[in-house]
Fold this protein.
Amino acid sequence: MTDKNALLAGGGGAMAGRSWKEVDLRAVAPFVALALLLVFGAATSANFLSTENLLNVLARSAFTAIIAVGATFVISAGGLDLSVGSMVAFVASLMILFMNTAIIANPVLMLTAGIAFALVIGALCGLANGLIITGGRIEPFIATLGTMGIFRGLTTWLSQGGAINLKSSTIEDIYRPAYFGTVLGVPVPIMIIVITAIVGAFLLHRTAYGRHVAAIGSNPDVARYSGVSISRVRTLTYVIQGVCVAIAVLLYVPRLGSTSATTGLMWELQAITAVVVGGTALRGGVGRIWGTICGAFILEVVSNIMVLSNIASEYLIGAIQGAIIIIAMLVQRSLIRKS
Amino acid sequence: MKKTILGLVLAAATATATAVAGMAHAAETHVTIGVSVPAADHGWTAGVVYHAERVAKLLMAEHPGLKIIVKTSPNATSQANVLEDLTTEGINALVILPTDPDPLVNAIKAVKAQHIFVTLVDRAPSDNDQSVRDLYVAGNNRALGSVAGEYVKTHTPDAKVVVIRGLPIPIDQVRQDGFNAAITGSNVKVLGREYGNWSRDDAFNVMQDFLSKFPKIDVVWCQDDDMAVGVQQAIKQAKRTDIKYIIGGAGSSEMIKKVMGGDKMIPVDVLYPPAMIGTAMILTVANFYDQVPVRGSYTMDATLVTKQNATGYYFPDSPY
């Protein structure tokens, strides 16, 4: 009866309070899982909580985290992108090959051009995915499975199956701090994760575009009747994904200065897992950027704990990682049910 | 009646074919060799394709009547088709590095049944005998491990070693067994082993974690040149000076170059050379041109590449 009254009242104080609580718990759940993992890590290894180790782990989760920010948009809108791992390899290879041409003599300008080039290529790859899906009316799963093969194949062709190395050691030296450098003691990749997430969260939660993304994800028909251009909104989610892949590439290239056949292999699954572990529904409609970032941290922390601790032989690591991810999800579920 | 005529025609055709073949043989110049290798899908197979094409050119320049056809296949099914096509084109010998040996056994046997000389390279099926091939050329995974183990034992007798493994498959296990056997009874201690999946990025991550976990590491054995790239970056980032050296493996141009240049962190490399496809091709050609017996098994050493001999294994143009 009180519920009904509250509903009829059109969202009184009590109702608003309750829905806030609900949202909070759902959003907080991944962080609770991460906190439990940190406790577990500290209990199993003496070195786990060292600043150096934690910064390493956060820094290298940058690839998954940044790609997963884009994937949060795609998945919230009811789509899926399986091509991101291959796209990383493709964009990174093109970026290195472009910088190897040395068409600009000044290394700083060449690097700047390389960065702009990577962002444009990333956006174009995403646009291609979006147009194939919306224009061609092909299921995202199949369309991006196709482009996954195309990006991977083109990369293998460009490298003749081998590795592509950055030739100029001057550029490598200038560029290296983009992954290994720190600003006020915080590694650059971590800053980039935070900036990407802030921009992503603003776009998804505070703009009309973000509301349209969630709307077409939860019910495309209703969204269409409300005058939302589904094709445009959906295509743009893939462009955002492409740009996020390019940002990840900008951190990837300075780390090893090379790409190889294993670059980005299976990263699409990592990204999708981070999104789902972070509380975004795979069926679309709800997106949680900060949850996604937390999901990426969870994945990286799990594999870090596996190497640091002596819980299991190297043969069992895959099994234990799988189990921990499922347990983390169960913890979240039980929290949400209690609310 | 019809059958008899058909039989006669067939017999005549066969006789003509044999005569033609006989004439060709008498001239002793025209030999066609089919080389079937996996497509260049990672560093090592990219090296195989590179060396197959390189050695094919060398051999054809040396023997004017020799024709070598190099074909690449992404998987066992398409490789089986390539074998059929090559047989139809008419080859005298087949040099094959199978994508996956067991599913291809029957296809290879079918080629051999046509009296075509078969050379099998590296990846052997479970029953690897004369019924499948005439010549077998292979690398030595156990030695790849034991040569590295011997080097560590000799040069750093009390070393604390971290091991980065490849993927959980038999080749990797054999390499580990070789390494373990070599260091048994010595003071060399393995601190930890983890899989790096033969990936630069995974090796980087594993090495970062090893560096956090162990305050003192003397040697990294990562048995693969690709993974050595990631390991080096992780050590550089941590600014750790306790690590004396890294041993990779296979013989990529990138790592051989470092050995040549006297890089302190990469003093040696252990060969598991993709150029073995060239060895197989040269032995196969010798069978036709040089009248030397070549049938049998040829297992290569896992040669230790040092600063002294590195130039002999350096291919600056190779993708691997």
